[in-house]
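Hey,
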Amino acid sequence: MTVTPRPDSSEPLWSVGGVTAVVTAVLAVVTAFGLPLTDAQQAAILGLVAVVAPLVVALIGRTRVYAPATVERLVRDAAAGTDR
């Protein structure tokens, strides 16, 4: 599967730490306002986020960045006058 990155992306990746921090903050707020989550449930949610967040970031990031080999191929093709 070939993915063509978007050249208009200003910030290609959002860190896994950022995603985890947001989920942690949301959990803290909703439990403070009365959502009955046990410590075990909170730990399970954060564990899930710790596994899923890197995968989501990788999938999203893959569409927004170029690998050095891809850049080299694009430059070579542009210099040769071919478009793929």
